[in-house]
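Supplementary Methods, section 5.1.

A reviewer requested that the exact input to the structure prediction be made available. We therefore reproduce it here, unchanged from the version used in the analyses.
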Amino acid sequence: MTRLALLLAFAALLMGQRDPVLVPEVSQHEIEVRQGFTGTELLLFGAILDPAGRAAARDYDVIVVLQGPSQPIRLREKERFGGIWVNAASTDYRSAPSFFAVASTRPIDRIVDERTAAIYEFGTRYIQLSPSGAIEPGEQARFSEGLVDLRTRQGLYREDIGGVSVSERVLYQARIKLPSTVVTGTYTAETFAIRQGRVIASALAEVEVKKVGFERFIADTAREYSLLYGLVAVTLSIGMGWAAGRFYSWM
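The structure derived from this sequence is encoded token-by-token as follows.
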């Protein structure tokens, strides 16, 4: 806990503030995605201090929001037609978080009202999505719920009510699992201290998820030499199909 001790010493210098001070930290500032990566668990921890650097004199609720890089996405609905499933209506989003997780000390509706929850995105139902172009509100709600449901089943969106523990009014911690399918980029972990329905303090920490080794080489090649990468991939697929056919013909 040496890193936390340094953070506590730094926070003790913040004497001029009236509100409590949040001192956040994460167990890993860099996560390396290698071959065989099966996911990892991220520990978000820190301290809630008064302006003098001492333990807070009051109890606070804590909510942690971890978000991955936003990216554009096209969402399609499936419709059964003639006994088969076909693509039906679709909509595009200019940005949607690739990963989203919320952990809290207790049920969020007992911590803040719905308006505050919507402002700070305290829950998957409050994720701020940006549809591209005009869309009817009812249809937008249906697609948004579908996106959240899909990514929740994939383990990319999640809520952990009671997942934040606070010890002696000062130390808090939460554990959030990152699945093997997380995208690379910068993840933001924002911590909020809340009392009587009001956000008193907030603080931000960042985590970088990056590919290394052969996986990084493949990703860089696909991005920088997309045409060559596509030709090689098609050639390999054809070659492997031909080799498999020859192999079975000899059997």
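The CA atoms of residues 38 and 180 lie 5 Å apart. These observations are discussed further in the main text.
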